[in-house]
Amino acid sequence: VDPLRQMAGFSSSVVPVEPIVNIDGIDVNEAQQIGVPDTNGDVSPEHYVQVTNGGGSVFKIFDKEGNLLYGPASFNTLWEDFGMSGLGDPVVLYDQGADRWLFTELASDFNTMLIAVSETNDPLGSFYAYEFQSPTGLPDYPKYGIWPDAYYITTNEGGEPNVPVYILDRAAMLNGEANVD
Q1: Distance (Å, rounded) from C-alpha 143 to C-alpha 22?
Q2: pLDDT tens for each residue of 31-87
Q3: Contact 113, 106 (CB under 8 A)
Q4: DSSP string, the chain
Q5: What span, in angstroms and rounded, lies between the C-alpha atoms of 77 and 181?
Q6: pLDDT band (50, 70, 90) for residue 175
Q7: Mean pLDDT across 8-22
């Protein structure tokens, strides 16, 4: 028995919790039967967005009641303006401070990160899309931090000493500006 837990006044009883909403997300056929799905998702006050590997990345947009609003669709629709296509490792984040969405994945050229920021709080609307070259190789397994001054990204680029931190100008990206790194 944990004495700290006892001192904090916690009960040892288990309280069952029922989900408010249960959403049938992206299935294996919609994701083109990719072996490692790398499923990811986030929620805003009005939406839930799920993304998974699938010939690049596949996503769906739901309302908070679990109704499908859009998808399954490919992230490639975001990158086609600059001739890129995605490889996978998708991440979707809701930037609460800006009330915007951040969609990301690795590019098929193996050394580029693809990032899109929604122009409004609606994930069904338009996005500003960006590409960033990694100087050391595949920016695998990206992890993101959202701070008021910047988007911070760490990646696994072959282990030590290649563990970079990328800092992107959040305000510039939210405004759709071209120079953001």
Answers
A1: 26
A2: 876 677 888 999 999 999 999 988 789 999 999 999 999 999 999 999 988 888 998
A3: yes
A4: --HHHHHTT--S-------S-------TTTTTT-SS---EEEE-SSEEEEEEESSSEEEEEEETTS-EEEEEEETHHHHGGGT--EEEEEEEEEETTTTEEEEEEEETTSSEEEEEEESSS-TTS-EEEEEEE-SSS--EEEEEEE-SSEEEEEEESSSTT---EEEEEHHHHHTT-S---
A5: 23
A6: very high
A7: 77
The CA radius of gyration of the chain, in Å to the nearest whole number, is 19
**Rounded CA gap, 17 and 29, in Å?**
31
Q: Which residues contact 20 (CB under 8 A, 6 or more apart)?
A: none
Q: Which structure tokens are listed for 12? A: 């040892």
In the numeric block, which tokens belong to residue 165?
A: 């931190």
Confidence of residue 4 (pLDDT cuts 50, 70, 90): low
Residue labelled with tokens 């910047």: 150
What the block records as the tokens of 153 is 């990204």
pLDDT at 126: 95
